[in-house]
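4.2 Preliminary Data

To establish feasibility before requesting continued support, the project team ran the inverse folding procedure on a target of 363 residues. The structure was first converted into the token representation described in Section 3, and no sequence information of any kind was made available to the design step. The complete token record follows.
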């Protein structure tokens, strides 16, 4: 018996080693299945319910995890692009059927590719002749659209499989589907949506003695896809301006910090205009260098300021954008610089800040 057990072990051992090596050669075997969200209407009709069930079966057969979530509001497009975000889905899918009278109905099949951030819509017209297999028709078209959108993840075995939805015959005549159309603006990430950081430089024109100065600028922002955002910007640390008098000179440096609300229009367009308004503080640092017998002094003056401006953003490479803007600033109280008994100059209440920055957004 011992020699038989030994022979069996020798036969089984190579098979076990082969199975182990095959499992290691396929690192995706233990990887979690990608998730697809199916959005179900609040009061779905029988045709839509059956079509969604067929689509769900196809996705399951292809190895996807499927999460069915009910629509909660009237903004279907927004829900399609955001619902179930905590599940980390690769796509979201929905079918909308609208009766159009005289025995016909129009259907829209929506697929939101969460990875590429684009939404695809396909239209179909269903007539009385399709009444018996309308759900089958919708399922076929929906599966084909999903296969096209998820081609990188749809397994070859699934493409060859024949199930209730995919084995249906081609739909002729009036039920033919219009070509897929894609909104280029919808596929582009909304400008300033999410956490953003920008770096650049600005030119400050003070309508007083200090004239024109420049310095580096940075801002941090957080925005929403609808076109609203909040940001904090900092400007300064550039070369000081110099005021002179017979008793010596004064070097003047200015730094600004502003909290602003920003409203953009067409946040997914190739050119995004915006306006901004806010308030903050201005810090003026004055260093006096006196001629004998006078002594130099150092002063720090803080002033409140308000800002109002406009600009334009050019998204040139996701998620980077070029930002150009101009803002009118009003500070109070005004700052007067004296050298000995001489009024060397006055930093005016009004000034203009123009700047250009490169902004990046963390999606």
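Position-by-position output of the design step:
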């Amino acid at each position: 018996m011992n020699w038989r057990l030994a022979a069996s072990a020798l036969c089984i051992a190579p098979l076990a080693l082969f199975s182990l090596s095959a499992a290691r050669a396929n690192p995706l075997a233990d990887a979690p299945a990608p998730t697809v969200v199916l959005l179900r209407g609040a009061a779905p009709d029988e045709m839509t319910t059956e079509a969604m069930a067929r689509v769900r079966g196809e996705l399951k057969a292809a190895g996807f995890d499927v999460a069915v979530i009910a629509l909660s509001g009237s903004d279907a497009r927004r829900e399609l692009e955001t619902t179930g975000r905590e599940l980390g889905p690769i796509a979201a899918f929905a079918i909308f059927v609208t009766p159009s009278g005289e025995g016909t109905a129009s259907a829209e099949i929506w697929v939101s590719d969460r990875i590429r951030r684009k939404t695809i819509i396909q239209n179909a017209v269903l007539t009385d002749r399709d009444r018996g297999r309308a759900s089958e028709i919708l399922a076929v078209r929906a599966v084909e659209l999903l296969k096209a959108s998820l081609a990188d993840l749809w397994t070859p075995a699934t493409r060859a499989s024949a199930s209730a939805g995919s084995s249906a015959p081609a739909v002729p005549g009036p039920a033919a589907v219009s070509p897929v159309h894609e909104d280029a603006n919808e596929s582009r990430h909304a400008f300033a949506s999410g956490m953003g950081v920008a770096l650049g430089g600005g030119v400050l024109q003070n309508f007083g003695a200090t004239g024109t100065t420049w310095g580096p600028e940075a801002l941090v922002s957080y925005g929403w896809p609808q076109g609203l955002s909040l940001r904090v910007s900092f400007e300064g640390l550039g070369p000081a301006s110099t005021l002179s008098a017979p008793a010596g000179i004064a070097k003047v440096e200015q730094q600004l910090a502003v909290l602003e609300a920003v409203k953009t229009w067409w946040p997914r367009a190739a050119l995004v205009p915006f306006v901004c308004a806010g308030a903050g503080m201005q810090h003026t640092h004055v260093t006096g260098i006196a001629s004998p017998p006078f002594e130099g002094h150092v002063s720090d003056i803080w002033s409140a300021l308000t800002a109002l401006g406009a600009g334009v953003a050019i998204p040139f490479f996701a998620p980077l954008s070029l930002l150009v803007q101009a803002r009118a600033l009003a500070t109070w109280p005004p700052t007067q610089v004296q050298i000995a008994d001489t009024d060397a100059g006055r930093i005016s209440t009004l000034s203009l800040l123009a700047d250009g920055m490169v902004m990046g957004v963390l999606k």
